[in-house]
Structure prediction request, 113 residues.
Amino acid sequence: MSAHTDLHSGHDHAADHGSVKSYLVGFVLSVILTAIPFWAVMTGQFDKATSIWLVVVMAIVQVVVHLKYFLHLNFSVAGRANTFAFLFTALIIVMVVGLSVWIIYASNAMMMH
Prediction:
C-alpha cells in the first residue's frame, strides 16, 4: 500500500467535499431561486416595490444555499472553524464597505453645503 493511501484511509471525502446529491440539490435550488425573481420581473406580475423585495429575499436565500451546498459551511464540530472564519471575514468586508460609503456620503454632504 502506498503512503498516499495510508494517509487518507480514515478520511471521509463526502464530509469535506459533499456528494453528488448535495451538489445537485444546491444546483436545483439555485436555478429555482434565480427563475422566480426573473419570472417576476420579466412578467411584471407585481408592483415595483414587491419585485425589488422579492429579488432581494431570493438573493439572500440563494447566498445561504451557496454557502451550505457549495462551500459546505455549517456549524458541525468539524466545520465550525471554517464557518466562523467566513463570518468574521464577511463582517470585516461589510464594515469596510459600509464605513467607506458612510465616509464618502458625509464628505459629499460637507462639500455641497
Q: What stands out?
A: Residues 28 and 34 are 10 Å apart (CA to CA). The mean pLDDT is 87.
